């Protein structure tokens, strides 16, 4: 158990690159109400950064978009 838990006990800094289309998809997908709260927080911060830098408002996800039909 310690071999599994130890790597997950640390926070890693990482960097990614993405174009605007990829970023918009990621924000929409990870900001919905069904997303994990920590993912939602990061996605909303990304949307805010895009708005500050480019002046473009990215739409945030909704639960309706990601529910399965039926």
Question: Care to describe what's here?
Answer:
- With 70 residues, the protein is mainly alpha-helical.
- 57% of the residues lie in helices and 0% in strands.
- The protein has four helices and no strands.
- Helix 2 (20-30) packs antiparallel against helix 3 (37-54).
- The longest helix has 18 residues, at 37-54.
- The radius of gyration is 15 Å and the shape is globular.
- The protein starts with a helix and ends with a helix.
- The mean pLDDT is 79.
Provide a compact summary of the structure.
This protein has helices spanning about 1-10, 20-30, 35-55, 65. The chain is mainly α and about 70 residues long. It is globular, with a radius of gyration of 15 Å.
Layout of helices and strands, plus pairs?
Layout (H helix, E strand, L loop, with lengths): L1 H7 L11 H11 L6 H18 L8 H4 L4
Helix pairs in contact: 2-3
Helical content, roughly?
55-70%
Averaging pLDDT over every residue, what do you get? 79
Terminal-residue CA separation: 40 Å
N-to-C SSE string, H for helix and E for strand: HHHH
Low-pLDDT runs of 5+ residues are none
The total of helices stands at 4
Spell out the key features of this protein.
mainly alpha
């Amino acid at each position: 158990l310690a071999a599994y838990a130890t790597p997950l006990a640390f926070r890693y800094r990482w960097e990614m690159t993405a174009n605007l289309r990829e970023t918009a998809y990621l924000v929409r997908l990870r900001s919905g109400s069904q997303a994990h709260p920590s993912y939602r927080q990061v996605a909303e911060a990304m949307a805010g950064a895009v708005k500050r830098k480019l002046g473009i408002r990215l739409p945030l996800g909704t639960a309706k978009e990601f529910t399965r039909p039926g």
